[in-house]
């Protein structure tokens, strides 16, 4: 006859094995969505958006330099033709959040159709580089940053919200051509 040693399992509190009596841990595991394959969408917050809007309204040239750097570095060109329009990148850098999902519904292509997802990715890449360049410039020049912040605060004091709605400021080349012909 063999002497049997009793088996004792010590469960650490808070683990899934210890909480088998409770169904809520199993439910939370089932309710969790599975991770998608492929790269995760890049979302970049833009805390300097209000300063960028004020700099654009003031016509400061470093904004144009940063936009062109973003276009040439982030997106480049095909056969000497830029893949995105600098004016679209100027609008994107004014958004509070830079992501493809945020950009897609805001722009139209030459045929007055929504832009493709790839174009939105190009715009987001160019905007991320431009914003990085603008942030570096503002960090190098704290007096300029304070002056833009003061302008923003003054503007907020008189006007409740910034009237820079991208959906209203967006026109296709066809619209501009029709207006020029009239």
TrEMBL record:
Residues 18-46 are annotated as: Disordered. Residues 18-27 have a biased composition (Polar residues). Residues 33-43 have a biased composition (Basic residues). It comes from the Bacteria. This is Uncharacterized protein. It comes from Pseudomonas lactucae.
């Amino acid at each position: 006859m063999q002497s049997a040693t009793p088996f004792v399992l010590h469960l650490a509190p808070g683990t899934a094995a210890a909480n088998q009596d409770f169904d809520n841990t199993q439910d939370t595991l089932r309710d969790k969505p599975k991770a998608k394959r492929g790269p995760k969408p890049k979302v970049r917050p833009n805390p300097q958006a209000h300063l960028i809007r004020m700099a654009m309204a003031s016509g400061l040239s470093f904004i144009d330099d940063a936009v062109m750097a973003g276009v040439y570095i982030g997106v480049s060109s095909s056969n000497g033709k830029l893949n995105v329009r600098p004016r679209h990148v100027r609008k994107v850098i004014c958004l509070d959040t830079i992501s493809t999902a945020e950009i897609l519904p805001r722009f139209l292509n030459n045929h007055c159709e929504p832009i493709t997802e790839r174009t939105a990715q190009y715009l987001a890449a160019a905007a991320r580089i431009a914003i990085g360049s603008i942030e570096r410039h503002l960090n190098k020049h704290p007096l300029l940053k304070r002056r833009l912040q003061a302008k923003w605060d003054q503007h907020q004091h008189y006007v409740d919200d910034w009237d820079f709605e991208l959906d209203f400021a967006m026109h296709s080349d066809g619209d501009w051509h029709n207006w020029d012909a009239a």
